[in-house]
Every structure is written in structure tokens, then in C-alpha cells.
Specification:
The chain is an alpha+beta fold. It has one domain: 2-Layer Sandwich (Double Stranded RNA Binding Domain). It has one helix at 35-50; strands at 4-13, 19-23, 29-32, 60-71.
């Protein structure tokens, strides 16, 4: 089995305010009031999830990269 070198995550606007981030390969979801906060929280959540685990159990390379996509809604006048 070929191991994935990347963990993909999507950041979207939250229902009320702020942003929500969710990983596609592992069950990690987090939030933050700003893009800086949500990306910091996402990195920390992924590190905590994989801490003490063998990434290969999740089909991941030993040190996977975190690829983030932002979904931003334009504001119209």
C-alpha cells in the first residue's frame, strides 16, 4: 500500500462566526475566530491526534505535510 504524504484539510466559514477546519484523511475537526487561529489550532490538533500513533495505521507517511484549502464566500454589495 502506498502511503500518503499529505493530510488534506478544508477551512470554511463557521455557522455563526469564525472558521471551522476539517481533515479529510483523519478524524480531526477544530475551529477558531480568525484564519490565523484556526490554522494554528488545526496544526496543534493534527499533532495531538498523531502523537504516539503510527501514521502508517492511517495510511500516512511518517511525517505527512498538512495541505489546507480555504473556502471563502465573497461579500456582495
Amino acid at each position: 500500500m502506498k502511503l500518503q504524504k499529505n493530510i488534506k484539510a478544508v477551512i470554511v466559514n463557521g455557522d455563526e462566526s469564525g472558521f471551522v477546519a476539517e481533515c479529510m484523511e483523519i478524524p480531526v475537526v477544530t475551529q477558531g475566530q480568525t484564519l490565523d487561529e484556526v490554522t494554528k489550532n488545526l496544526k496543534e490538533a493534527v499533532e495531538l491526534f498523531l502523537d504516539g500513533e503510527d501514521p502508517k495505521e492511517f495510511g500516512l507517511d511518517e511525517k505527512p505535510n498538512l495541505i489546507v484549502t480555504f473556502e471563502l464566500e465573497p461579500e456582495y454589495a
